[in-house]
Design brief:
Helix content: over 70%
Largest sheet: none
Shape: globular
Order of helices and strands: HHHHH
Structural class: mainly alpha
Number of domains: 1
Strand content: under 5%
Number of helices: 5
Distance between the termini: 23 Å
Length: 102
C-alpha cells in the first residue's frame, strides 16, 4: 500500500509543481532528487520545529505543513496522512468556492 501512497503524493507534488513559478518549480524538482534524502529530512524537521514557534516574527505556522510534506517524501508512515490531508483541504477549498469536487 505504501507504493500507492507514494504515487499519490508524487502526483500531487507534480501537479502543484507545474503551477509554480519557474524558479520555484525547478527548486521543488531539485529537492525531490533521491540523493537529497538527508537534506529533505533535516529541512523537514527544522520547518516543523520552527513552525511550532510561528507566533515569533519571520517564522510562521505555514512552515509546519511544508515540513510535513518534505518529510512525507521519505517517511513512510507520514505519506497516507499527508495525502489524505491534502485531498481534504482541496475538497474544502472547492466547497468554499462553490464548485463540486471531482
Amino acid at each position: 500500500m505504501t507504493t500507492r501512497d507514494h504515487d499519490h503524493l508524487d502526483r500531487i507534488v507534480e501537479r502543484y509543481q507545474a503551477k509554480m513559478p519557474g524558479w520555484m518549480g525547478r527548486f521543488v524538482g531539485w529537492i525531490r532528487k533521491p540523493e537529497l534524502r538527508l537534506l529533505r529530512l533535516v529541512a523537514g524537521v527544522l520547518l516543523v520545529l520552527f513552525g511550532c514557534v510561528g507566533f515569533l516574527p519571520i517564522l510562521g505556522f505555514w512552515m509546519v505543513p511544508l515540513g510535513l510534506l518534505l518529510l512525507a517524501q521519505d517517511v513512510t508512515f507520514l505519506r497516507r496522512p499527508t495525502v489524505n490531508a491534502i485531498y481534504w483541504v482541496e475538497r474544502k477549498i472547492e466547497a468554499w468556492r462553490g464548485r463540486p469536487s471531482s
